[in-house]
Design a protein that fits this description.
Blueprint lengths: L5 H9 L5 E5 L2 E10 L9 E8 L11 E4 L16 E5 L2 E6 L13 H14 L2
Antiparallel strand pairs: 1-2, 2-3, 3-4, 4-6, 5-6
Length: 126
Amino acid sequence: MSFLPSREREYLEGKCIVFQEVIDGSQKGVILPSFRLPSNKYDVHQADVLIVLPPGYPDVPPDMFYLQPWVKLEANNRYPTAADQAFKFNGLSWQRWSRHNNEWRSGTDGIWTMLKRVEHALEVAA
């Protein structure tokens, strides 16, 4: 049950990024298991990352991303800003990272863009 565009699957496979395509009800999500988090930043070293693909993807951008387990900043033992709400997907309660995307370029951007956005958000979170 593959729903990612083939060039996006090929990109992830070419980068040796493990991923799962999961359908939960009417929602489609890409899960990146055991995603390495920035060192010395969070109370865990890795987490599963969920990217929910909206109807119309890849012309329509993913809006947020989600982590499982929930993570806290090591420096103050608090959730990062705008990362303290739950999101139910595939039987789990995911930590929603509210990071909106207003710069998506239809026809150019894809899962690679979202990965860079996730990496950046995790790096600069406060």
